[in-house]
Amino acid sequence: MAKFRRNRINDAVKEELAQIIRDTKDPRIADAFVSITGAEVSGDLKFAKIFFSVMAGDKNEVLKGLKSASGFFRSELARRLNLRQTPQLTFEYDGSAEYGANISRILGTLDIQPIDDEESDDDEA
Questions:
Q1: Could you read off the pLDDT of 13-52 as tens digits, one per residue?
Q2: Would residue 119 count as lying in a domain?
Q3: What is the pLDDT of residues 90-111, one digit of tens each?
Q4: 59 touches 34 (CB < 8 A)
Q5: C-alpha distances in angstroms, 20 versus 5, 34, 98, 116?
Q6: Which residues does 91 contact at the CB level (< 8 Å), separation at least 6?
Q7: Burial class of residue 30 (count of CB atoms within 10 Å of its CB; 0-12, 13-18, 19+)
Q8: What is the pTM of this model?
Q9: How far apart are CA 120 and CA 39, in angstroms?
Q10: Using N-to-C axis directions, what is the helix angle for 59-68 and 70-80, rounded to 10°?
Q11: Which of 25, 55, 65, 124 could be stapled to 33 by a disulfide with Cβ–Cβ 3.0 to 4.6 Å?
Q12: What is the 3-class SS of the chain, one letter each residue?
C-alpha cells in the first residue's frame, strides 16, 4: 500500500513540476525546452530527486537555473499539492532520450537486407 501511495506522489510531483517549469520565466530554463522525465520522492517525503532532459541548450546551464529556482518550485509544489511535507528538490540530468536517439541513429546507418520468405522456402525444399 505504501509503495502505491509513493508512486502516486511521484507522478503528482512530476506532473505539477512540469507545469511549473513551463511557466518559469528564467531564460536558462524557458529557452531550453526542459521536460521532466521522472520524480523519486523518499519515503518520509523530505527529499525528491527530479530527473530532467533538455531538447535545446546546455544541460549544465539548465541545471544551474533549476537549482537556483528550486526554492520557487518547492513553494509552488506546496501550494498546489496537499502534502504533509513538501520535499527538498534535487535535479539530475536524464540522458536516456539522448541515448535512445543515438541508438536510433546507429541503427539507421546499418544496411540490412530484408529476408524474403519465398527464397527461404525454396532453400528448404
A1: 999 999 999 988 888 888 888 989 999 999 888 999 999 9
A2: no
A3: 999 998 888 888 899 898 888 8
A4: no
A5: 22, 11, 24, 52
A6: 49, 50, 51, 52, 63, 66, 67, 70
A7: middle
A8: 0.77
A9: 49
A10: 60
A11: 55
A12: CHHHHHHHHHHHHHHHHHHHHHCCCCHHHHCCCEEEEEEEECCCCCEEEEEEEECCCCHHHHHHHHHHCHHHHHHHHHHHCCCCCCCEEEEEECCHHHHHHHHHHHHHHCCCCCCCHHHHHHHHC
The three cell numbers of residue 82 are 496537499
Structural domains in the chain (count): 1
Residue 21 in contact with residue 55, Cβ under 8 Å? no
Q: One-letter amino acid identity for 59?
A: K
Whether residue 121 lies inside any domain: the answer is: no
Which residue in the block uniquely carries the three cell numbers 512530476?
14
Establish if 14 belongs to a structural domain.
yes
Domain-embedded: residue 117: no
Domain CATH for 15: 3.30.300.20
